[in-house]
Write a structure and sequence with these properties.
By secondary structure, the chain is an all-alpha fold. The chain has helices at 13-35, 44-51, 58-190, 197-213.
Length: 214
């Protein structure tokens, strides 16, 4: 908005002086016309209008206009100029407010865009981390299963060895018992002691042959 220009002709000191002179002249002339209206022929219509209920006093009207012209600079200084300045300041504030609102809207749009980008990036990172954790869990599961299978195989092999040792031990004890029983039975038949190293070895070899043949 353009500001009032103090150098315009209507605001110059010469124009103000002219207005004052004209105003004083109109005040004096109007007062004179009002006081001598009945003596002035062209103002006779005022009386006729008054009788019809339409009061009119051109002298007072002219004097009032003159007063306005004389007081116009004062009115301009104390009323019109402050009002124009207030309006200008208000317009400036409104323009500043609109500008700040536009800047705020742009800033909000920028922040919203950054927020959406950050959310999208966070979601992508979260998905990547979840997928990585799933892959690690699957690898750990496979590793644990492989270790468990290997451990089970070791335990099974050890159990087989223990069973085989226990079997050999039982067989040896059983073989020894059979040899003892055989020698004891043979002693009863022969009527003499046969429990010596050679006889025991012979009986043992015989039993082993029988087991091998069976």
């Amino acid at each position: 908005m353009s500001t009032p220009n103090a150098t315009t002709p209507s605001g110059s000191p010469a124009a103000a002086l002219v207005r004052t002179v004209i105003g004083l002249a109109m005040m004096a002339g109007g007062f004179y016309l009002s006081q001598h209206a009945e003596e002035i022929p062209f103002l006779a219509f005022q009386k006729a209008l008054g009788e019809k209920g339409v009061p009119l006093d051109l002298g007072i009207t002219t004097a009032t206009i003159g007063v306005f012209l004389v007081l116009l600079p004062i009115i301009r200084v104390f009323y019109i100029k402050p009002l124009e300045e207030a309006i200008l300041e208000r317009n400036t504030q409104l323009e500043r407010t609109f500008s700040e609102a536009e800047e705020l809207r742009a800033e909000m749009a920028r922040l919203r865009s950054e927020y959406e980008e950050r959310i999208a990036q966070t979601e992508a990172e979260a998905r990547a981390q979840i997928q990585q954790q799933i892959r690690e869990a699957q690898q750990m599961r496979q590793q644990l299963m492989a270790e468990a299978a290997e451990r089970a195989e070791e335990l099974l092999a050890r159990a087989r060895e223990d069973i085989e040792r226990e079997r050999q031990k039982v067989l040896a004890e059983l073989q020894l018992r059979v040899v003892d029983l055989s020698l004891s039975a043979a002693e009863k038949v022969v009527g003499a002691s046969l429990d010596d190293e050679q006889n025991r070895r012979l009986v043992t070899e015989f039993i082993q042959k029988v087991e091998a043949a069976g």
